[in-house]
Amino acid sequence: MVPHQQHAPDLNQATLRWLNELADQGVFTTDTELRIAVWNRWLELHTGLETEAVVGRSLFDVYPDLLARGMDKRYQQALEGQVSVLSQRLHRYLIPMPPVIEATGLAQMLQSVRIAPLTVEDRVVGTITLIEDVTERVLREDELKQQIEELETLQASLRASESAQRFLSEASKLLASSLDHGVTLENVGRLVVPELADWGIVDLLDRDGQLRRTLIAHEDPAKVALAHQLSERYLPRPQDPAGIAEVLRTGEPLLVPDISESASGERSCNAELLALLRSLQLKSFMCVPLVLRSRMVGVLSLVSAESQRRFGPADLYMAEELARRAVVAIENAELYRTAQDAIREREAFVSIASHELKNPLAALLGHAALMLRRAGQAEPLPPRALRSVHAIMEQADRLNTMINSLLDVSRVQTGQLLIEKTPLDLAVLVERVVTDLKVAVNSHTIALRKADQPILVIGDEVRLAQVFTNLLGNAVKYSPAGGQINVGITTDEGQVHVSIADPGLGIPAAAIPNLFQRFYRVTRTSDKHVSGLGIGLYVVKEIVAHHGGTITVESTEGVGSTFTVHLPLPKAERIAG
Predict the structure, then answer these.
(1) How many CA atoms does the CB half-sphere of 126 hold within 13 Å?
(2) What parts of the chain have a pLDDT lower than 50?
(3) Strands (E), 218-258
(4) Are 130 and 82 in contact (CB under 8 A)?
(5) Are 90 and 133 in contact (CB under 8 A)?
(6) How far apart are CA 522 and CA 516, in angstroms?
(7) Any residues with CB less than 8 A from the CB of 404 and at least 6 apart, and which?
(8) Do 434 and 472 form a contact (C-beta atoms < 8 A)?
(9) Residue 501: which of 443, 563, 448, 558 has the closest Cα?
(10) Pair type for strands 123-133 and 560-568
(11) How far apart are CA 113 and CA 95, in angstroms?
(12) How far is CA 135 from CA 24, 40, 46, 102, 109, in A?
């Protein structure tokens, strides 16, 4: 065997000793003929090959597998003075292991290999190869990479979750923004298309258990019109084996990721409809139940088409969450519509009944008045009979007032409360109402602080007189002990204020916010003898509102109340003021 020194005469002996003692890397050198010159201790340990067995032999003769790897080109580059760095993750040694070493499992080491020219005074005298065991480093890198990927997946999931929660939150707000049935369905369509799907369809069960298609949503109105025509032919039937009918029967959602797959297609619709869906190039389909308090009320269907989106479990979750919110909004809209229908029927009945009651009431008043006139012309009526006739007229007048109030409520609810506005002097109007009440009332004193000058407003003289007559009547009614009622008129900042203060029972603080609601009556033990329907103040508030004004109240229970009507002054009046 050729001595080691003869194959590397130019190598520094100190360098050789240092390389040979290096323990954490494999190092071997070759001469220009690629014969091994140095084979360090690390290589002896990891390959099982002693230095004497390889030094002097051709590298490719010792390990012909390197030729198969194309490594001869790398070494040729090194001999030409080029530095070649190979950062390869090799699942076996670059230098093949003997069977005895492979059996230990060490051959699964991952390596990083660098091949470079070995030079002396700018002359290439051979090559040097460094082999580093990077198994642990690569495993740590792989673990770190996996952790980064998991973190990125988690972040993406969190972003998707946050986006979903924002969407559902906005959906809840939008669906709760209206009680109109049509608007609610439109909002469902706006939420579905195009955020979740290309098509959105809502089918609701009516009271007879029949399915009604109440919504078809798509960005293209022409396609919506076509879909409505198709729905007349292909509306789901309860006996259908799959699709919407299946969801109605089972109450379970249906997810068809790919309509084009025959198995999914057969499961989602009949053959004829499947052919139609394919002609429309529909891609994916979801169908979720609309359930309210354990009762099936309909189905929400979502379909993808031109977007080529394939629905998955995450999409199904969003559809189910949206369905939960939508069904509550739809139900609320249905209840509101039903309530409104009932209110309209009631108002129509009240209006008809009130009109019908006025005819016999007018006849009753006419006959009572006739009896009084005849009694004055002929023999006077006995005192008891005269009191009875007066009682009849008084109660008939009261009943007439109640009927007129009911008619006013009906007019307000149906938008038929007519206000005929003309210029008028509000001070004169209030004074006339006060004067008329003084004639009819003996138990109270009414003090009016007259205005110094005319107060011009634009309003309905009859309706405004009704407002002040009602308020003064209440002041008398709720002051059973008598006393003085103070009426004042003031102006400031473009408004006129008419106040009516009584020394009566007062109003509990808790009742004031509800005082102007329809049919609301204050509940007190002290005024059970005071009758009324609870509609007078409601009508007053509506009349004042139709004049662009407001009404306020200040009251202390047991002390009295002050109602103030605030009406706008015309611009000319404001300038004059």
Answers:
(1) 20
(2) 1-11, 89-93, 97-106, 262-268, 529, 573-577
(3) 254-256
(4) no
(5) no
(6) 11
(7) 354
(8) yes
(9) 563
(10) unpaired
(11) 11
(12) 13, 20, 14, 16, 6
Nearest to 456 by CA among 410, 489, 416: 489
Tokens of 566: 């605030």
266 residue type, one letter: E
Beta strands in 87-240 (DSSP E): 111-120, 123-133, 199-205, 211-217
CA distance 372 to 362: 16
pLDDT tens digits for range 404-443: 766 666 667 666 677 889 999 999 999 999 998 888 788 8
- Which pTM does this prediction carry? 0.42
Would you say how long the chain is, in residues?
577
What is the rounded distance in angstroms from the CA atom of residue 126 to the CA atom of residue 12?
13
d(CA 247, CA 323): 13
Domains of the chain: 4-133 (3.30.450.20), 172-333 (3.30.450.40), 340-413 (1.10.287.130), 422-576 (3.30.565.10)
Pair 190, 218: CB distance under 8 Å: no
Instruction: Please tell me the distance from the alpha carbon of residue 301 to that of residue 311, in angstroms, as a whole number.
Output: 12
For residues 421 and 430, what is the distance between their CA atoms, to the nearest angstrom? 17
Strands 483-492, 444-449: pairing is: parallel
Copy the structure tokens of residue 247: 């969801």
CB 569 within 8 A of CB 491: yes
**Which tokens hold the place of 378?**
């002929």
Residue 145: left (phi > 0), alpha (psi -120 to 50), or beta?
alpha
Q: List the alpha helices (DSSP H) in 244-382.
A: 244-250, 262-268, 271-279, 313-377
Interior angle at CA 476, CA 471 and CA 477, nearest 5: 95
- Convert the pLDDT of each residue in 208-222 to its tens digit: 778 888 888 888 888
Q: How far apart are CA 145 and CA 158, in angstroms?
A: 19
